[in-house]
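ok new one. same drill as before - C-alpha cells go in, u give me an amino acid for every spot. 345 of them this time. try not to just spam alanines like last time pls lmao
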C-alpha cells in the first residue's frame, strides 16, 4: 500500500513569490527556517532554500508540483491594480483562486493564507477605523477591488475544519517598502512630470500605509496560529502599521526624502474626481483608436482625498499582531532604498 508522505510543517509555498510582497515573505520564511517553493508567472531572483516553479496559477497541472509535500500555502499573486483589464482580473483573481483552492485540496495542503486587501470594503467614501465586519463594497470602485472581494469570499468559504483544510485572509492596506514597483515609482514619475504640485481636497484625510515587513509579519503569525481550534479559521484580518497618517503628509515625506518638492496648492476633491471620471471614460471610448493611461484615475483620486484607515484590533487579539517597524523607520528605509529615483539621479 502506498503511504502518503505527511507534508513537513516547515515546507511552504508562496504563489506570487516573485512579486514585491511575495519576495519579502519568502526572505522572512527562509530566516525562520522554512524551505520555500515559489510559484509565479515569472522568476525574478534566485535564493538558496527556494525552488522556483514558473507558470500560470490558472493551470492546476502547473501548480501541483509546486505544492508537493507542502503543508502551508501563501497566495499573494494578482494582476497589478493599475491594470483595467477586466477579463484578466476575473481569470486570475476569481477562476485562478478556485484553481489554487482545488490544487491545495488535491495536494493535501493543510493551510491556505490569502493576501486580500482592506480595499474590499472601500467604495470611495470615508472609512474611519474600519473593522472587519464592514460589508464588502456594494459598488466596488474598479475591477481589481471587485475581483479581490470574490477572491476573499472563495478562500474563506473553503475553510473546512472537518476535512483539515484551514484558510485565513490578510487584508493589508497601502503596502510600501524597498522594491515596491508601485507606490514610490508612480509618485516619483508623477513628480518628475510636474504633476505633484496639488493637494486633492483639504489635505487632512487620514490613511493607513503599511511597511512591507509588517505585512509579512501578519501573514506569518496568521499561518502559524491557524489551527482547527483557533478563532482565525475562515476569517479576514486587517494588517496595517496602526499609525494612520494624513495621505498628503505621507506623500510629502517620501517626496521630500527623495529631493522633490511637497505638493502645496489645493484643488477641490469633487472637481478632481469628476475630471478623473471623464478622463477614464474618454480613455475607454478612445481605446480602439489609441491607448493612454491617465495618472489620476478615479480610484487614485478617491484614495488621495478620503479617509481610509482600519482597526487592527482583531489581529492584535487573535494573532498577537503588533507592527514590528514604525512608520517613521519604514519611510526612512524606503527612501534610502531608491537612490535611482532621487531628484537629479
Ligand atoms: N501593493 C499594495 O499596496 C497592496 C497589495 N495587496 C495584495 O498583495 C498581493 C501582492 O501584491 P504586490 O506584491 O504588490 O504585487 P506584485 O505585482 O508585485 O506581485 C504579484 C505577483 O504575482 C504574479 N502573478 C500575476 N498573475 C499571475 C498568474 N496568473 N500566475 C502566477 N503568478 C502571477 C505577478 O507577476 P507579474 O508581475 O508578471 O504580473 C507578480 O510576480 C496581491 O494579492 C495584492 O492584491 C493588498 C493590499 C495592498
Ligand atoms: C498620483 C497620486 C495622486 C498618487 C500616487 C500614489 C499612488 C500610486 C498610491 C497611493 C495609495 C496607493 C494604494 C494602492 C496603489 C498605489 C496607490 C494608489 C492600492 C490600490 C494597491 C492595491 C490595494 O489593494 C489597495 C491599495 C490602496 C493604496
Amino acid at each position: 500500500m502506498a503511504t502518503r508522505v505527511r507534508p513537513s510543517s516547515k515546507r511552504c509555498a508562496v504563489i506570487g513569490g516573485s512579486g514585491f510582497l511575495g519576495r519579502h515573505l519568502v526572505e522572512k520564511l527562509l530566516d525562520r527556517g522554512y524551505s520555500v517553493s515559489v510559484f509565479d508567472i515569472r522568476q525574478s531572483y534566485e535564493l538558496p532554500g527556494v525552488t522556483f516553479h514558473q507558470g500560470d496559477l490558472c493551470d492546476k497541472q502547473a501548480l501541483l508540483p509546486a505544492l508537493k509535500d507542502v503543508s502551508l500555502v501563501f497566495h499573494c499573486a494578482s494582476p497589478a491594480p493599475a491594470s483595467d483589464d477586466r477579463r484578466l482580473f476575473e481569470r486570475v483573481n476569481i477562476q485562478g483562486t478556485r484553481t489554487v483552492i482545488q490544487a491545495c485540496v488535491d495536494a493535501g495542503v493543510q493551510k491556505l493564507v490569502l493576501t486580500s486587501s482592506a480595499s474590499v470594503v472601500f467604495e470611495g467614501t470615508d472609512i474611519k477605523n474600519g473593522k472587519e465586519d464592514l460589508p464588502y463594497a456594494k459598488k466596488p470602485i474598479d475591477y481589481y477591488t471587485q475581483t479581490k472581494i470574490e477572491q476573499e469570499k472563495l478562500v474563506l468559504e473553503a475553510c473546512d475544519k472537518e476535512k483539515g483544510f484551514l484558510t485565513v485572509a490578510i487584508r493589508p492596506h497601502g503596502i510600501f517598502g524597498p522594491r515596491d514597483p508601485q507606490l514610490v515609482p508612480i509618485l516619483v514619475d508623477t513628480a518628475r512630470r510636474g504633476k505633484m504640485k496639488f493637494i486633492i481636497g483639504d489635505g487632512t484625510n487620514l490613511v493607513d500605509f503599511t511597511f512591507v515587513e509588517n505585512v509579512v509579519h501578519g501573514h506569518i503569525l496568521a499561518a502559524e496560529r491557524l489551527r482547527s481550534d483557533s478563532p482565525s479559521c475562515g476569517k479576514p484580518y486587517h494588517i496595517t502599521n496602526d499609525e494612520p497618517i494624513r495621505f498628503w503628509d505621507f506623500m510629502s515625506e517620501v517626496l521630500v526624502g527623495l529631493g522633490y518638492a511637497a505638493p502645496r496648492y489645493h484643488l477641490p476633491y469633487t472637481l478632481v474626481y469628476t475630471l478623473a471620471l471623464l478622463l477614464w471614460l474618454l480613455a475607454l471610448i478612445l481605446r480602439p483608436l489609441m491607448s493612454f493611461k491617465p495618472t489620476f484615475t478615479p480610484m487614485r483620486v478617491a484614495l488621495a482625498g478620503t479617509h481610509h484607515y482600519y482597526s487592527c484590533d482583531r489581529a492584535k487579539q487573535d494573532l498577537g499582531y503588533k507592527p514590528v517597524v514604525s512608520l517613521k523607520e519604514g519611510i526612512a528605509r524606503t527612501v534610502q532604498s531608491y537612490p535611482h529615483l532621487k531628484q537629479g539621479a
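Residues 1-6 have pLDDT under 50 and may be disordered. and btw The longest strand covers residues 8-15.
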